[in-house]
């Protein structure tokens, strides 16, 4: 499923795109456990244009990822911007590549994801969506 995608956006650029383009959809590809324990982007101010589709499941890669993506209302070739978000910006690259290969998009990756890489103190949360003060809520 590797291949090109439309590119990387900072969390602020991703929010600006989703908030300003009524066709854009933010797709959080983290696990259900992450959504519950860490929180989720709050897209209420963007007309609720957010979806939650796991890239990985506890059993491994999600075999129904593309089917679940289609269930959000996206259609291959419709030209709707799709912005993928994960914890640190790794799974979301793979999701953007898979979506692009399936004809969705333009598909983007959010750099540093929802909570970023581990910082010098061994903790996450120094970078990414939440650290930049973008809308989020506890699931």
From TrEMBL:
Domain Rhodanese: 20-123
Coiled coil: none
Pfam family, one: Rhodanese
SUPFAM superfamilies: Rhodanese/Cell cycle control phosphatase
The protein's name in its UniProt record: Rhodanese domain-containing protein
Classification lineage: Bacteria, Bacillati, Actinomycetota, Actinomycetes, Micrococcales
